[in-house]
Specification:
The chain is α+β, with helices and mostly antiparallel strands and 166 residues long. It is 31% helix and 9% strand.
Length: 166
């Protein structure tokens, strides 16, 4: 169902025309736009606009992690995802703030646990049974969460800077 208070776009099933529609004032949709193509009934779909993502925040440069450390594990995983050093710096800043990169970090008032401060902590069991003590398991879960919710570590860092949490 179309939200009558929002503006939507109607995307024609054609190479590129997009029609912007304001449906707030009525239940009748009138599409306007410049195109030289006809749009038939059934040849279009209503799409909601993408939600706004927070501005990317800059984080201090993190430097090279110590071999074998949780940060080194995260750095390798970031590289495997195709993310660069700027994303690593954002992740270091984020998890310095959240947990100090401590696998045993636990927030007694919220129940958040581990390096990524998963809430509740047992969500990380979806990645491994050793979620309470394994940096690799916690980082794997945390990067999946960040990717799904914020797109990148810098997106998560920007959100954290804006709200105080991510």
């Amino acid at each position: 169902m179309i939200d009558p208070t929002a503006a939507f776009a109607i995307e024609a099933v054609a190479p590129d025309p997009i029609y912007y529609v304001d449906v707030a004032s009525s239940q009748t949709i009138t599409a306007t736009g410049d195109t030289d193509q006809d749009v038939d009934r059934g040849s279009y779909k209503v799409i909601e606009p993408e939600p706004e993502k927070p501005d990317v925040a800059n984080a201090p440069t993190a430097g090279v992690p110590d071999p074998g450390s949780a940060k080194a594990i995260a750095y390798a995983m970031l590289k495997d995802r195709g993310w660069g050093d700027a994303e690593y710096s954002c992740l270091v800043s984020l998890w310095n703030k959240e947990s100090g990169w401590n696998v045993n970090a636990h927030n007694a008032s919220s129940g958040a646990h581990g390096i990524p401060q998963a809430l509740p902590g047992n969500k990380m069991a979806s990645v491994g049974a050793d979620w309470m003590t394994s940096a690799k398991t916690q980082i794997t879960w945390g990067l999946g969460y960040i990717s799904g919710r914020y797109g990148t570590p810098c997106g998560a860092w920007a959100s954290s800077e804006a709200r105080g949490w991510y």
